[in-house]
Sequence to fold (241 residues):
Amino acid sequence: MKVTHCLNLYQLTVLPRLFPVNCYIYEEEEQLTLIDAGLPSSYKGIVNLVKKLNKPLTNIVLTHGHGDHVGALDRLKLTFPNAIVSISIRDSRLLKGDTSLEANEPQTPIKGGVPKKLITKVDRLLGEGDRVGSLEVYATPGHTPGSISLLDTNQGGIIAGDAFQTKGRLAVCGQMVRRFPFPTFGTWNKEISIESARKILKLNPTILAVGHGRIIENPCESIQKAINEAEGSLSKLGKGA
Fold:
């Protein structure tokens, strides 16, 4: 596992060259928060880093309910039984294998791998504005209906799950990146993804940390470019191009 340290955030990456899957440990003065639980093979690296940092893991926050973000969750909950597991109200259904849509949602199918045999129960359901330590929750749907991002209220960084990818290039989820197309295949709604990308840009983040690819420092100019490309692609699609 590759570990990258930026500000008070640790990025843990399995398969960094071939198929990078990230999860993050956010370090505070007296506690640690894990953001996403990666693949099953992420377990050992997460546990080792928690031990190295020598602080209690108090929270496990899931940015969304896809399998590559919850893979090590069951083992982690057994190892850290006091850690509070949280996910958005909407995506909590995905953890139960429920991919049905609500009447007010665009009726495009929910895509991506949804866990079928997850044992761990969610302890806390999150909504916009909720806080997990110093992390503030923002609803950023698009990749899934209930995707969230977490803003570090101390340092200004944002952990955005799969709202963007940086593997291949920085792109809004749903935009085809031929060098790494997999987040595109798992995206529920491209239009809503662009709206969420604009929302993240307005937060003026100091760093952008995502589920697939490296951390980007001072990302706003690159985010704006990615949004412009996504809007252009959507416009061409609407014209039948």
